[in-house]
Amino acid sequence: MPANHGDLERRLWDAADELRANSKLKASEYSVPVLGLIFLKFADNRFAIVQQELETAAASSRRRRKTVSKTDYLARCVYLPEAARFRSLIQLPEGENMGRAINQAMKAIEDENPDLRGVLPKNYTRLADANLIELLRIMNSIPADIPGDAFGKIYEYFLGKFAMSEGQKGGEFFTPTAIVQLIVEILEPFHGKIYDPASGSGGMFVQSARFVEEHQQNPSAELSVYGQERVAETVRLDKMNLAVHNLGGDIRQGNTYYEDLHRSVTQRGQPGQFDFVMANPPFNVDRVDKSKLNDDPRFPYGLPTVDNANYLWIQIFASALNEHGRAGFVMANSASDARGSEQNIRQQMIEARTVDVMVAVGSNFFYTVTLPCTLWFLDRAKATDPKHRNRDHVLFLDARHIYRQIDRAHRDFTPQQIEFLANIVRLYRGNAPENRHDSAAMLKEHFAKGKYLDVPGLCKRATIDEIREQGWSLNPGRYVGVAKGAVEDFDFTERLEELNEELEVLNGEGRELEERIAENVARMLEAI
């Protein structure tokens, strides 16, 4: 077993990417077949382990026992017929149609495993046999004794690399792991039902399971996973991702704006059914047909008049929570200060004591845009518990100056930085901080007594009255301020992009207003 799984991930990626570079394939044509072969290698390794354990148990049994059956395997792993075993594909004679053989192997796996029906890629004839043989050789170099979780990390690593190379399209299915980990660390999904209505490739579920494992519990016993995703291919990526992490889940294909396939909430104004909601929805989507949403119970605060779906998503997340549910999601910065009908919705949510924590994240964390973003955290327990310690407060965190530079165009958080930020939230909630990733020194630097306090330039526990005075803004920068003696790190390009985004939002509001004025004038003229 390799001492450093990171080295293995990079070596596998370098070999697979070099092969793509020497072919005529685009990253988007190459990604799903490669991820399918990672899945197949994982399933093969797991099947071999379970096969040995079952046969050993049968041989040592004192009672007469029937032959090990397919049902015995299905209880513990993906069942693989002989033609779908990795060794069978590797040993095919020269000149065999490799693409057809892999397609048949994937079809055979789906036939034997109902949960995977329609999930696995079967487009391998689009790749040259020479490329497929080399890919099989690369994947076969993964050691047989590698732990199962390492396969999940390899899958995630490839997902991230493909997302980076595919640019905008990659952002539709992959949220950078550091962002997901921060959301999970702040939400603390120890037990319950998790819902992601924009589930992409399933990163929120995977990191939630990892969080539970790190706290010495079994994710399969503690978590129930529910997802919805518009794009069929992305649904398949999600289901494969869950499979290589030994997770089950109910992932459905549908347009979340118009379809609530998991019945997250059934009655307007009543609690939803989920303990945790986490998501990274598309930002600033226009042309959603709001006439289809008038009677939808997921929008208790009303529909925004502007042609922008941000506050549709925000209400979808909020309404899905049960009485003690928590939500964490990524959102465009402009939503924190949006005016008009969106401000009215935001005010209602703040006054309802739903908003709990706001985190400003710097630029270059995402593969699709360089813009910074804001993480929103909701907590329905604040609304239902009159004695909640933070009922009349919202925590604002400015993490724009906290990051690790990966390369010129990309940043992320270190595990230590993620834990440090999550520990500030734990102190705010009155909970003990954690030190699984050696963040104690960072925390002590700002919170020497181990108790929460406002730190200029970092965090502020603001009252509802203070938020009202700021026009119901949820922009952390308005409350946190600048650290004493610090020189503000001003990035002209980043600031220009922020202003341009704000201008686009204002232009959209202006167009809406023009249309309403024109409609009113037309009515007046008709009445004369």
Account of the protein in words:
The chain has 20 helices and eleven strands. With 528 residues, the protein is α/β, with parallel strands linked by helices. Strands 3-2-1-4-5-7-6-8-11 form a nine-stranded mixed β-sheet, sandwiched between helices. α1 (5-21) packs across α7 and α9 packs across α10. It is globular, with a radius of gyration of 25 Å.
Question: How is the secondary structure organized here?
Answer:
Elements: H1 5-21, H2 27-60, H3 70-74, H4 86-90, H5 98-112, H6 129-140, H7 148-166, H8 168-171, H9 177-187, E1 192-196, H10 203-214, H11 219-222, E2 223-229, H12 232-244, E3 250-253, E4 274-279, H13 310-319, E5 321-332, H14 340-351, E6 355-361, E7 373-379, H15 381-384, E8 393-398, E9 404-407, E10 410-412, H16 415-429, H17 440-446, E11 459-463, H18 464-469, H19 477-480, H20 492-527
Parallel strand pairs: 1-2, 1-4, 2-3, 4-5, 6-8
Antiparallel strand pairs: 5-7, 6-7, 8-11, 9-10
Short description:
The chain is about 45% helix and about 10% strand.
Determine the strand fraction and express it as a percent band.
5-15%
Strand order of the largest sheet: 3-2-1-4-5-7-6-8-11
> How many beta strands in the DSSP annotation?
11
How many distinct helices?
20
What is the radius of gyration? 25 Å
Helix fraction bin: 40-55%
For the largest beta-sheet, the strand count, sense and barrel status come to: 9 strands, mixed
Distance between the termini: 84 Å
Overall average residue pLDDT: 88
Low-confidence stretches: none
Q: Pairing-aware structural class of the strands and helices?
A: alpha/beta
